[in-house]
Structures are given as C-alpha cells and as structure tokens.
Amino acid sequence: MASSAIFHPTSGADAVGPRWLARLKALGARVLSSERAAKDGAAGDDRPEPKDDAEVPGRSAQPGGDPALRDLLADMRAASPEDGPPPPVPDDSEVVPESDEPCQRFGLAVDEGGEFLVLTGPSICVGHASAGRADLPILADLEPRHLTITRRTSFHSGASWVASPCGEARVAIDGRRVVGSASLTDGAELRLAGGVSMRFREPDPGSGSACLDLGGGLEAEGAARVLLLAPGEGGRVRIGPRTDRHVPVAGLDRDVVLCETGGRLRVQCDGGVRIPGRDESQAEMVLDLPPPERVDLWAGVRDHAGFPYTISIWPIDPTISRSREATD
Q1: pLDDT digits over 100-142, tens only?
Q2: Mean pLDDT computed over every residue of the chain
Q3: Which listed residue, of 5, 115, 128, 280, carries a Cα 20 to 30 Å from 23's Cα?
Q4: Is the same domain home to 205 and 276?
Q5: Is 328 contained in some domain?
Q6: Does residue 93 fall inside a structural domain?
Q7: Which of 175, 231, 232, 225 is nearest to 201 (CA)?
Q8: Residues 127 and 224 in one domain
Q9: What's the confidence (pLDDT) of residue 79?
Q10: Are 39 and 168 found together in one domain?
Q11: Could you tell me if 202 and 64 lie in one domain?
Q12: Are residues 64 and 131 in the same domain?
C-alpha cells in the first residue's frame, strides 16, 4: 500500500526534505562531538571560559561559517523546486481503493465530441506501452508501472483521486515532486519521466468521474483523452451542451448520461437510445463491460430532425496483459 505524502517545513523556496536529513544529522553530530571535546580539554586547565563561539573549536563566529554547513546551505538553495515537498495530503490519506474490482477498459467515440479511452475501477496504472502491464499505456520513456491513480474515500474529505508513484518512478504535480502520494485537484498538471505530461480535470462538480488530457501529442490506445469512470450514479459522465460536462458538445438539446454499475454500462437519454436497424427506442440501454464487440447507438439529443447522433463503444484488445500481481 502506498504511504501518504511526506511534507516538511519550508523557508522560501527551500525545503528540508528527506534528501537533506542524512547530511544535516551528520553535520550536527560532528559539531556536537567537537564541542564536547573542547569542553573536556578545557576542564583540565585554568583558562577562562570562552566568551564567544569564535574561541571554541568546532564553532563558528558567523552563521554558516563552517565549510560543511556553507556547502549544505548552498546545495539546498540551488535545489530545483521540483525536488521540494509534494502537495500535502490529509493525515487520513492512506490510499485505500474504494473496492478491489479490476480495471475495465473500452473505447468511446462521440459525434462532434471526439474519441476517449475509458477506464473503470477504483485504481488505474500508467506505464510504458510495450511492457503490457499498464491500464493506461503510453509509448514513452516510462517504467512498466510508473504511476497509479486511485479513487479514495476519506471520512473527512469524501471521495477523491490520489496519485502515487510506483517505486522510485519520478512524478511531479504542478512542479512539485510527489513522495508517497498526493491528492489530485481540478486542473492539476502531472509530469512524468520522458517528457510525458497530462492534465487532470473534474469538470462536473456533481460527479466523481474525472478526465486526463494527454499532452505533447501523446496517445493511449489511439486516444489523447481518458475518462476515469467512477462507479454508480455518483460517477455519471454526461455528454451535453454545457461546459461542465465531461464531453461538452455544442448544439445538443439534451444530455446523454453514462453510468457504470455492477460491471455494466447504462446509457441514458430522455430523447431515447436505440441500436441502428431496430425500431424500438428506450430511455436507457444496458451494455456488458467490456463490450464483446463494437456497439453503435443512436441518441435523441436534438429536437429537430436530421442525421442520427451516434455514440460508439468498443472493446480494447484483451490480449494485453496487465498483471496486478507483478511487483513494481
């Protein structure tokens, strides 16, 4: 289980983080040893007690006068802000997934809205595409399992998404390197190794689902946008004309709503949903996840007659193995 973030006090742009602790401890031990030796040596003669630090071996009259201390301070000031502490995570932030359901993957295409890779489940893994161990595979200089994004439920703050690097993999959020784990907020920029970046978004405040927009022309399974589909009504994804929709499409008269419940996908529209070639139209259709084959749906999203509005769902190649038992 991933640990919570380590957060240390800062002074200006500098931070006393784990990378500096060993040097600080060694420096403190050396100074303390020198002072003790000086006191023991002075106890056997009649010289008066020194009145200032400059007269005691091991002390310095000026702050930072010790060469080792000057070197340490210079290194700390020169450190990149990305090496500083991660965004703080609440004390109750142990990253415990909402359930142990495996991640399901499928493709989604929306007329006038584009294509998406949709990931369901409480935890997804980002990693190198060729390793075959990531739910979100990217062809870049990443570890086979580089980052996990987990849906966490907290007693104090409710449900949220948390990012956790795998092992020693490098991950930064808004320019701050993540140590342990860090909560994701709307608009956060994640940077991984190999120039990989992605933007985390939560456009609908009433939904627990989120979006990842891949940067730099990158794609995962042919899509540059990813939907993290949270379960149940609380994780509904809406396709509609408003900007606070996960898939905003101008000119629609009503929404299409996607919900994942019990390993099945519910597709709802007040104007009706139907499969082309069939006469019946209904307010809701239920599909298995992952779908066994491509499914095209027509949705009644416009009041005026015209070309059908199509939403397509298809399975992602199941031969890609994403072993959960493999160690990082």
Answers
A1: 577 899 999 999 999 999 999 889 999 999 988 999 999 999 9
A2: 79
A3: 5
A4: yes
A5: no
A6: no
A7: 225
A8: yes
A9: 53
A10: no
A11: no
A12: no
Domain final residue pick, 41, 64, 79 = 79
| 257 has a pLDDT exceeding 60 | yes
pLDDT at position 57 is 47
- Cis peptide, bond prior to residue 290, ω within 30 of zero: yes
Q: Could you tell me which residues come within 8 angstroms of residue 187 by beta carbon, excluding any fewer than 6 positions away?
A: 199, 200, 201
CA separation for the pair 59, 38 (Å, rounded):
10
Spatial separation of the C-alpha atoms in residues 189 and 214, rounded to whole Å:
10
Once rounded to an integer, what is the mean pLDDT over residues 224-249?
A: 96
Token couple for 243: 């900007």
Hey, which bits of 246-302 come out as E strands?
Answer: 247-248, 256-261, 264-274, 282-288, 295-299
Asked if residues 299 and 269 have their Cβ atoms less than 8 Å apart, the reply is yes
Location of structure tokens 């020169």: 78
Q: For 49-82, what is each residue's pLDDT tens digit?
A: 544 444 444 444 444 456 766 666 666 655 544 4
In this structure, the answer to whether residues 130 and 254 fall within a common structural domain is yes
Q: Which of the listed ranges 28-37, 53-62, 213-222 does the model predict with the highest average pLDDT? A: 213-222
The whole-angstrom separation of Cα 267 and Cα 118 is 14
SS3 assignment, position 27: helix
Residue 193's contacts (CB-CB under 8 Å, 6 or more residues apart) are 140, 141, 142, 143, 146, 169, 170
Q: Mind listing the pLDDT tens digit for each residue in 258-276?
A: 999 988 999 999 999 999 9
DSSP letters spanning 85-118: PPPP--TT----BS--PPP-EEEEEETTTEEEEE
To the nearest 10 degrees (0 to 180), the angle between helices 67-78 and 18-42 is 170
Nearest of 1, 15, 326 to residue 162 by alpha carbon: 1
Q: b/e map of 210-225 (b: 16 or more CB within 10 Å)? A: bbbebeeebbbbebbb
- Specify the number of domains making up the chain: 2
- Judge if 175 and 232 occupy the same domain: yes
Q: Which of 21-25, 31-35, 90-94 has the lowest mean pLDDT?
A: 90-94
- Looking at the structure, tell me whether residues 51 and 129 fall in a common domain: no
